[in-house]
Write a structure and sequence with these properties.
The protein is α/β, with parallel strands linked by helices. It has two domains: 4-320, Rossmann fold (3-Layer(aba) Sandwich), CATH 3.40.50; 322-383, no CATH class. The protein is built from 19 helices and six strands. A six-stranded parallel β-sheet has the order 5-4-1-3-2-6, sandwiched between helices. The longest helix is centred in the middle third of the chain and has 24 residues, at 186-209.
Length: 383
């Protein structure tokens, strides 16, 4: 692997330098959203756009796709060419807004997996605030598998909501080679994104801990918990990021005037989120367990669970229900795995969790039998 100095010697970061100079001028503050696909990062972007003068949606992925993807004819190591070019587009957009205002707030949202570690090390110097988004792995993977099934079978969005079709084609989709933008199969791309997300999180934590009097802040949003308690979750996020503004969660609107996206805003991957005007509550129809997936997908989800728990239980997490809250709410019906994983966090003993659950289940039509193998992984997490 190239050292930082070797990377500097072999690459041009002229546009990145311009962006860093804008940051140093104290005229620009960047809130950066970082998550896997299907983790709620676009919804978080829509919410946080209320605070921003400018919102930029996936500039790095956008430039990558427009340039021909990972297998384009000419490229630099670690996609430095894409990184610097996207920094240049960010600078262009910011400069337009600085003509009218002395200081602006910018929200930038990107997917985990684009930044190689040596590039992430450079990027993390730029934003002030970092919001990581996560989603319980059974549901996140089902959503990702659905999106990729739609892509593989050219459904133009119609297959994303058809779970029966998605499951019937899962053995094909899970190992299908995706477009050059993703570089891998449905499973491998998702695994890379999760690995990157967790590694990126620990890298920025390490960076912050080494800097005295830093203004950089981190928060984590869990999409399931956000949909369960949207007001509490976002109030806590604002507090963790030291943002004093208020957010309106009653009605959401992606304001076209301040959201910049190099790609089609109506493409299937983001169409539903872009057209949402509210935070949809959790429903029991979303519950999904390992048994509905083929073996390879089951194994993949099992590998994601410890990564998910790393961020779910990190101090930067915006909200974690207490045992008392779990006992009096419907979260346990809408996502039994997450509810039991949180109970395990509080009790640290699978037998106690089982007893606790059986007591709760007497008054609720809930079963966790189909989640036992997943919960064993959660139990081993604390071993």
């Amino acid at each position: 692997m190239l050292s930082t100095q070797q990377l500097e010697n072999r690459s041009s970061f002229s546009k990145e330098l311009e962006l860093k100079q804008l940051i140093k001028s104290d005229r620009v503050s960047i809130i950066y959203i970082h998550g896997t696909a299907r983790s709620g990062s676009t919804i978080a972007e829509i919410v946080l756009s209320q605070l921003a003068d400018l919102t930029i949606h996936q500039p790095f992925r956008g430039v990558l796709q427009k340039a021909g993807g990972r297998f384009r004819a000419t490229k630099l190591d670690f996609d430095v060419d894409i990184y610097d070019s996207a920094c240049g587009l960010i600078v262009q957009q910011i400069n337009q807004y600085l003509q009218a205002k002395q200081k602006i707030i910018v929200v930038i949202k990107e997917l985990a997996g684009f930044f190689k570690p040596c590039i992430w090390q450079r990027w993390l110097e730029i934003p002030d605030k970092f919001l990581f988004t996560i989603r319980e792995p059974h549901i996140q993977y089902m959503s990702w598998l659905s999106a990729m099934t739609d892509k593989v079978f050219q459904g133009e969005g119609k297959f994303q909501e058809n779970r029966d079709f998605v499951i019937s084609k899962a053995q094909i989709t899970e190992t299908s080679i995706l477009s050059a933008e993703w570089e891998g199969t449905t499973i491998s791309c998702n695994q890379v994104a999760w690995n990157s997300l967790v590694n990126d999180f620990y890298q920025i934590k390490k960076e912050i801990s080494s800097i005295r009097n830093t203004t950089k802040k981190i928060a984590i949003l869990d999409l399931v918990l956000f949909r369960y308690k949207p007001k509490i979750v976002f109030e806590n996020i604002l507090a963790k990021l030291c943002l004093e503004s208020k957010i309106n969660l009653t009605y959401l609107s992606k304001i076209d005037s301040n959201v910049w996206d190099i790609r089609d805003k109506n493409r299937p991957m983001v169409r539903k989120a872009n057209n949402s005007n509210t935070i949809h509550p959790l429903t029991t129809e979303e519950v999904v367990n390992l048994n509905v997936f083929p073996i390879k997908s089951q194994q993949h989800i099992k590998e994601l669970i410890p990564l998910y728990l790393d961020l779910l239980f990190a101090p930067e997490q915006a909200y974690l229900p207490s045992l008392a809250e779990l006992e009096t709410t419907e979260l346990i019906a809408a996502n039994p795995f997450l509810a039991c994983a949180v109970a395990l966090f509080h009790l640290k003993n699978q037998a106690q969790v089982n007893n606790w659950f059986q007591t709760i289940a007497k008054s609720k039509p809930i079963k966790i039998d189909n989640f036992q193998s997943s919960l064993e992984i959660a139990n081993n997490y604390w071993a």
